[in-house]
Specification:
By secondary structure, the protein is an alpha+beta fold. It is built from twelve helices and 16 strands. The chain is 35% helix and 20% strand.
């Protein structure tokens, strides 16, 4: 093995071990040495108690990979650089493109999927196959969809209209699956209708695999196809599409807020839908109306919520400031046949789903980290032990500027299981009760 390769492997392993020690700061410290005698470790804050034997075994396993010359990467390949964001602005009156970039770059749709869920559901309502008043029994499958959700339980009896509103306004995944089952019997049958509709609309680069947009390999959409869908939805179901302008809805006695950041904050905003998964990044299809002009803006694949919101607002501003008759007609821009087939997209660096600012229920506190990426990685690992249950919390603490990582909205048994799994691999984890979460002076804050 060459000296250069050995040096790279040593640097990788040293960084991995350093990140282990830099993880969560529970207030205690430990003096330790690098496994390489020539490099001494400085004093590092540790998560809670002394590192366990499990961490030592983990290090030896990592060293074994380095000796074999294998590349060590972050969990699930999440360190891969994301594709550049895609954007598109269309004047719906003139049908002209005012601005575009990466129009045909495919990426996971996330909850933009629910625009097509709306289309198929609106078709069913219009045909009379179902009504908003139809009572739907929530299945165990629908109730078990991971957050974001409406808190539905198996056996709940909910009006179809309430389920649809919760899915479209608050992006509730459980409600979206319940809508699909109410319309087509099974979610898979509903998804087949979604793909048939996509083909009819000319969405040549789109494939849906769920009614909610929850991650599943092979799902994809482009900015062009998202615009085709939104434009057709407004044209075909303009009256029903007004639901996307609502800022809140109620279901089963609970009030759910819209996920659309522009409603009530951007002049003229009247819809439509947000979306986020780690593989997709932050997405937004926005519709705004000013002075008789309707502008449809699409932003896909932004690395953060703030970046997405700012980019789409700026896109709308530029579109409204432009001349109405300029630009190429949207229908004239066919997809580029020379474009390579879609490739699986990798997730964003330091990405962690969710990020709720109001932890509740039982929780597994995973520590406070110097780097956001390390905190996000801890969340990803913990979510495996949680088997998809719970919601995530990832926020920077004002008192020490460290990133607090947590899974919350868990049952007591789930929180216990997550922490047991973490400790078996030498990771920091503390189970928090609901009262500990509510405490204003909790050590985790």
């Amino acid at each position: 093995m060459s000296g250069v390769l050995q040096g790279v492997q040593k640097a990788i392993l040293h960084d991995v071990l350093r990140d282990d020690l830099d993880g969560a700061n529970g207030g205690r410290r430990l003096m330790t040495r690098s496994l390489f005698p020539s490099r001494r470790r400085r004093e590092r804050p540790l998560a809670g108690a002394m590192l366990t034997a499990g961490l030592a075994l983990t290090r030896l396993a990592i060293m074994g990979l380095a000796i074999l010359g294998l590349a060590i990467s972050t969990v699930d390949g999440f360190a891969a650089e994301p594709p550049p964001p895609a954007r598109l602005a269309i004047d719906l009156g003139s049908e002209r493109i005012l601005e575009e970039a990466h129009l045909d770059s495919p990426r996971p749709p996330a909850s933009l999927t629910k625009l097509m869920t709306a289309f198929v559901a609106f078709d069913a309502l219009e045909s009379g196959a179902i009504t908003r008043e139809t009572m739907v029994t929530v299945s165990a499958w629908a109730a078990g969809r991971p957050p974001v959700g409406a808190g539905l339980r198996a056996g709940d009896e909910i009006p179809f209209g309430d389920l649809l509103d919760a899915a479209l306004i608050a992006s509730a995944n459980d409600a979206a699956s319940a809508v699909a089952e109410a319309v087509a019997g099974q979610e898979a049958a509903f998804v087949a209708r979604m793909n048939e509709k996509a083909a009819a609309l000319g969405m040549t680069q789109t494939r849906f695999l769920t009614a909610s947009g929850l991650p599943k390999p092979g799902q994809r959409i482009t900015a062009r196809d998202a615009a085709l869908l939104a434009r057709a939805l407004v044209a075909r179901h303009g009256g029903r599409a007004g639901v996307f302008a609502q800022t809140r809805t109620r279901i089963a006695g609970r009030t759910l807020l819209s996920t659309n950041p522009l409603l009530g904050r951007y002049a003229g905003a009247i819809g439509m839908k947000t979306g986020f998964t780690c593989a997709a990044g932050y997405n937004l299809v926005a519709l705004a109306e000013r002075g008789g002009r309707r502008i449809l803006a699409v932003g896909l694949g932004y690395p953060g919520r703030g970046e997405r919101n700012g980019a789409v607002v700026a896109l709308l501003d530029r579109a409204f400031a432009s001349a109405a008759g300029r630009g190429v007609r949207f229908a004239a821009l066919d997809p580029d046949p020379r474009r390579a087939p879609p490739r699986p997209l990798r997730a964003y660096r330091g990405c962690a789903p969710g990020g709720s600012s109001t932890p509740k229920g039982y929780a597994a506190f995973l520590g406070a980290y110097a780097k956001r990426g390390a905190a996000a990685q801890a969340i990803r690992i913990a979510r495996r032990a949680a088997k998809g249950s719970g919601a995530t919390y990832l926020a920077r603490r004002s008192r020490d500027r460290r990133w607090a990582a947590m899974l919350h909205s868990l049952r007591a048994s789930d929180a216990t299981r997550v922490c047991l799994a973490a400790r078996q691999t030498g990771r920091y984890c503390v189970r928090l009760s609901p009262s500990a979460l509510r405490g204003k002076r909790g050590f985790w804050r």
